[in-house]
Every structure is written in structure tokens, then in C-alpha cells.
Design goal:
Distance between the termini: 15 Å
Number of strands: 10
Strand content: 25-35%
Structural class: alpha+beta
Largest sheet: 7 strands, antiparallel
């Protein structure tokens, strides 16, 4: 194979590589739910949550649910109501670990959940900052009152935590301790990713530079023959 052909293949592969990178734009959020200060919901039942937790399930407890969820950014509406039935190309990864609960402790993965809800309630969230407390068209995001959006997981197994009210996960399939969302942070912004991801425009510019360099090299090679 000639050097000319090798340069052509190299330039093409580089362009395809970065074009592919432009298509995928995952965003990962680390989340924490806590039962320390959870209170009974101050809003009546809704169509989404017909049976909100009772007062005796919503008193303070030691349950903590930590985990992470990775969305395909291009499929995540912001602002918007995102309701994904799993599996779904918009949800790339999901894990949740329950600890300190009276029942339902353990680690759960994507197969343990059937649905994910991520609702900004009309607000455009800044994904590079703490999401809890950001403004929406109603209450601050993370408020478990039905006026501040929602982030919830719905279990697919009897022991997985289950969404029982807005920003409220209850352990052991909804029959255990209840917890409220207290933190949701972009993993990169939180410093848990060692390699920052390039932005889409940066990737596009880099792909263009590689293509230009390859084209210039090919012209010089042809002139030298």
C-alpha cells in the first residue's frame, strides 16, 4: 500500500473518531438521598404518586442512598420533563447503594429499576453546579412538594428503593425508610472524573484541524512525487 493511501486512511480514521465523539455526550450525576430530616409530604396525592408516604414512614431515620446516573446529554431535555422507561438509550448507567436503613440495604444496578424521572419544572438547570436548590418555575429544584420538579427511580425488584413522592425514595421497594434528595452534582464538576471531557465545539475544532492537517500533508506528498 502506498504512503499516499496510508495518509488517506489515517486522516479518515481521525476524522471519524472525533465525529463519533461528537455524537456521544454523557453527563453523570452523583446523588445522595438522606432520611435524617425527611418530613411528611405537605401536598396531597397526585396521579404520579397516588399513595405518598404516611407520616409514620416519613419521620427522621438513618437511611442514606448514594449513587450515580449517567444520561446521554443529547437526549436529556433541559428544561423539560424526562420520563424514561428502562432500558433506554438516554440512560447509560445507573447504580444506587442503600445503607443504614431498617430494611432494603444493598447495591442496585440498572436492571433493578424500571423507570427514571428527571423533571426540571420549567427551569433550565446548570449542570456544572449543585442541582439541588436551583430555581425552577416554582419551588427550588429538589423541593419535595410537587412544585420544584422531580428526580426519582422506580424499582424493578422487590428490595430496590422506589420513588414514593417527589424527590423521595423509600427503601425496600417502598416499604422501608423514606429519604429525600439532598445532593445531585455533576461528577466532573465534583472532581470525581480524572479526565475532563472536551466540549462539543472543542471536539469539532480538533476534528477540523486534524482533517486540514491530513489534507495539507496529502497535497505535499502528491507534489513531491
Amino acid at each position: 500500500m502506498s504512503r499516499f493511501m496510508l495518509h488517506c486512511i489515517g486522516a479518515l480514521c481521525a476524522t471519524c473518531l472525533f465525529a463519533g465523539a461528537l455524537q456521544a455526550a454523557p453527563v453523570t450525576f452523583n446523588f445522595t438521598f438522606s432520611g435524617a430530616n425527611v418530613n411528611p409530604p405537605d401536598r396531597p396525592a397526585s396521579a404520579k404518586y397516588p399513595n405518598p408516604p404516611k407520616a409514620n414512614k416519613a419521620t427522621g431515620n438513618s437511611a442514606v442512598i448514594t449513587g450515580s446516573i449517567t444520561f446521554e446529554d443529547s437526549l436529556l431535555q433541559n428544561p423539560g420533563l424526562n420520563d424514561f422507561n428502562l432500558p433506554n438509550p438516554a440512560v447509560l448507567a445507573l447504580t444506587a447503594t442503600v445503607s443504614g436503613a431498617s430494611s432494603g440495604n444493598g447495591t442496585f444496578g440498572m436492571s433493578d429499576f424500571s423507570e427514571v424521572v428527571f423533571d426540571t419544572n420549567g427551569g433550565t438547570l446548570n449542570f456544572n453546579q449543585q442541582l439541588v436548590g436551583q430555581p425552577t418555575s416554582g419551588s427550588p429544584w429538589g423541593s419535595p412538594d410537587g412544585n420544584g420538579g422531580d428526580f426519582n427511580l422506580f424499582g424493578n425488584s422487590p428490595s430496590a428503593p422506589n420513588g414514593e413522592f417527589y424527590f423521595t425514595l423509600c427503601t425496600n421497594g417502598g416499604n422501608g425508610d423514606c429519604t429525600n434528595l439532598i445532593s445531585a452534582v455533576n461528577a466532573i464538576a465534583a472532581g470525581t472524573s480524572a479526565t475532563p471531557a472536551l466540549g462539543r465545539w472543542a471536539l469539532l475544532a480538533l476534528a477540523g484541524l486534524l482533517g486540514l492537517a491530513g489534507f495539507t500533508g496529502l497535497r505535499r506528498l502528491r507534489k513531491s512525487h
